[in-house]
Amino acid sequence: MTWLVTGGAGYIGAHVVRAFAEQGIDVVVLDDLSSGHAGFVPEGVPFVRGNILDREIVRSTLGQHAVTGVVHVAGFKYAGVSVQRPLHTYAQNVTGTLVLLEAMAELDIDRMVFSSSAAVYGTPDTDLVTEETPKSPESPYGESKLIGEWLLRDQEVAAGLRHTSLRYFNVIGSGYPDVYDTSPHNLLPLVFDALLAGRTPRINGADYPTPDGTCVRDYIHVGDLALSHVAAARRLDAGDDIEPVYNLGSGEGVSVGEIMAAVRDVTGIDFTPEVADRRPGDPARIVASGELAARDLDWRMRHTLVEMVDSAWRARLEAKSPRP
């Protein structure tokens, strides 16, 4: 039993890889290092550098490593940027998923855990999102993730694919001192980089229809998310019944303003963030129930907000510069 993690050299993917390895499950990584880092892949885990759009590399990786299931994390994940780069977003997230599914079908690999997103919901007309909440994505990124879910659904009918899609919310924190979020677009990396450079952090929008005017999100710890990927893979390996989609949500909303307060507490640096314009494609509020995932995938919030921010800050300070 060997699982391929596409995007396994990235921040989230590397946590997933380590969770598999720590539970004794063989794993291999495919990543083109467009946003990942070879140094995030733990020693002893096979690493193939390549893009999921490259059919030959995908097929050879699956075959040479006797892969039996795939955790598909690779993709272009920036909702705001996707509004300016829709064709690139669809190529990476839709065509890339199609190429991967084609190669899996050719080699009779019938298990996939798919990295989806809360972006499929857009701005939901409900205080608490469930898996049945209507989907209305507001960015090419969200649309591409929803199409990915459709591809898996249709491949189940056509070829017997066994699958589940995990809809991520806002992932923060770190489980290891040498792995941290290096995204140039995510909130905490931007805030930390500003503080370390002696600049004032900037947030996007303070005029949303929320209690403090900043976006309200569902912040979850990356290590908790990784453990639920392993749980999903184990259920697929065992042939257990599994839902086609799960929300990995906390059930509680936290505003960007509250995140800023936690950053001040953790870092000991007093600041008042500058307020920039809203980012295109950002909904005002999105908070989800994680009840189904708690029932089936050992999903639970094991960290407080301060603990999540603290782990991210410590990893940012302590980690060596990632190798390209």
Automatic annotation (TrEMBL):
What biological-process terms (Gene Ontology) are attached? galactose catabolic process via UDP-galactose, Leloir pathway
Q: What is its EC number?
A: 5.1.3.2
Reactions it catalyzes: UDP-alpha-D-glucose = UDP-alpha-D-galactose
Classification via InterPro entries: Epimerase_deHydtase, NAD(P)-bd_dom_sf, UDP_G4E
**Which cofactors is this protein said to need?**
NAD(+)
Return the broad EC class. Answer: isomerase
Q: Which GO terms describe its molecular function?
A: UDP-glucose 4-epimerase activity
The protein's matches in Pfam families, at most eight in alphabetical order, are given as: Epimerase (PF01370)
Q: Where is the NAD-dependent epimerase/dehydratase domain?
A: 3-249
UniProt keywords (A-Z) are:
Carbohydrate metabolism, Isomerase, NAD
Recorded hits in PANTHER family, A to Z, give: UDP-ARABINOSE 4-EPIMERASE 1 (PTHR43725:SF53), UDP-GLUCOSE 4-EPIMERASE (PTHR43725)
| NCBIfam families hit by this protein | galE
Q: Which family does it belong to?
A: Belongs to the NAD(P)-dependent epimerase/dehydratase family.
Name assigned to this protein: UDP-glucose 4-epimerase
